[in-house]
Amino acid sequence: MSTRVDRLVSRWLAMVLPAAVLVLFALVAPAARAQSKHLAPGFDALPADAKVIVAPLDVELFSISAGGVLEPRADWTAQAQTHIRNALKARVAQLGLRSDEMDDASADELAEVLHLHAAVAQAIALHHSFGGAWALPTKEGKLDWTFGDTMKVLQERTGARYGLFTWVRDSYASAERVATMIVLAALGVGISGGVQIGYASLVDLETGRVVWFNQLARGVGDLREESKAFESVNALLAGFPVTRK
């Protein structure tokens, strides 16, 4: 009797378990995929006592001429730096991070290291965030990027375990560009009036590993205005890792 019951149980398990596994996979897989898009494998939160050093902003704004040439605007860039810096301070406070801003002396001394972030962030945006034909098969869709030992000098200089890096470029149509857009629109031709691109990375300074990454790539926003700059920073830091309690 017990043998028959065992056989029935085995058959039931054989039928039910695969379906249960598929259901469980369907429930868990989207969350896992969502996590892997912005977080490095195995990283889900900052340690409670983790100190984060906020690297100097890398920001530059441009005006677009009628012909589409980008012209740097120092006055707009200065406005954006002030607004983004204030927005970052507010957002970091909201997140409850134990953080410091990198001082000017350290930033000057470590400028070469800091500039590496732009190159790596652009590679992550292309090969990981956009992916598709640019995806690297060896990464298997994972946020698997590192600066190696390069960032250790920041840890030694600041005492922080993690570094938050931001890079933003934004452009706006000049009056001549707007006039050109109107004329071409009447002919059924659309041209860009500016685009906002931004990258934010959280890096483990001890290992050099990028543990969180996010980007902006859109045709809205205006960093010359305080309220809109705050919106951009909040969008750029969306999904920033929480701190363990």
TrEMBL record:
Protein name (record): DUF2380 domain-containing protein
Organism whose genome encodes this protein: Caldimonas aquatica
